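Entry for the shared binder. Reason: the reviewer on the internal report wants the predicted structure included alongside the sequence.
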Amino acid sequence: QVQLVESGGGLVQAGGSLRLSCVASGSIFSINAMGWYRQVPGKQRELVATITSSGSTNYADSGRFTISRDNGKNTVYLQMNSLKPEDTAVYYCYAGVRTTRGLTGSWGQGTQVTVSS
């Protein structure tokens, strides 16, 4: 079983910054892609950024956010700068994890990010 635990969310004023972290634990052989998604009530969960095990990144909207990972710590980060009220959402961590049962996708429980105007 794999657990993903996010941290770093909170309340910040527009223009501020936050750094989200997500640690994967459990019976992990290796982790392929990791990523961050976000969701607001009434809308579908949307991609924010992904990163492969070799460090290749993909962003839904580049410029203000930076995704990174520490493979030795099974951790992915999301540095969010110049935050806007429309960035308010629950942010979820995702990881494609190889375990004894094969490759599985795992999600964290989410962390709330609220940006005030």
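Summary line for the report: The chain has a mean pLDDT of 96.
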